[in-house]
Amino acid sequence: MALPADVADALITYRERLGIFRDHLQWHAQVTSTNDLALAAADGGAREGTVIAAEAQTAGRGRQGRPWSSPPGAGLYVSAVLRPHERAASLVTITAGVAIADGIRAATGLEVALKWPNDVYVGRRKLAGILAEAGTSRTGASHVILGFGINVMPAAYPPEVAARATSLEVELGRPVDRGLVLAACLAALAERYRQLTGEERDRVLSAWRAHAGPMLGRRVECTIGSRAVVGTAEGIDDHGALLVRHEREVIRVISGEVLWQ
Fold it and tell me: What pTM was computed for the model?
């Protein structure tokens, strides 16, 4: 379907800053998951920077296979096809978190915090989530599908989601231009991805640590294989692993379940 007017206008305003995302954005009324469509597009050889967005998802998902509630018109549900080199691939989620935080601040003035590995928070409530999924196309080319969902307006979420979710309009107390938020986030992602795949990954890591400041120092419970560890989140290392201080030991967490207290 054609781009909604608010989205089209914002993309024109940000056109010179959109980088690889400038010319290949598809908009759908409803999909199962934008990541599913982007994975299929990447498998078919879609160029890097292809973006797929939708008004609603019927089977949106987050980390660990959890569902992502995607009510019609209440949020931004977006996926992009990326083809990072091997050294950069492990930091795509970290990079996306920085970009979403940058974009939200640029479009609305709202300050948000990043929670490892893939969540954007305001205080104790979740505002946005990120899901990166790697794959290989039929031609043998590797790709990463970067999906993100941002709660823009209040919505009738399931009870277990409503208790811990928030939205841009709730936090700001005013209407929000979702097109502007999308364009600002894509522009920020283009720039942070350029830094990641170039020689400026330290700038991405430093920005993540700055955005994550409100979350660091909190107690976390991590499941690493069969081992449960309770400690204090201290930051990330240069490879994007969460650093957790447990007694006199600092543990690197690269995957698995992390519960923040």
Answer: 0.93
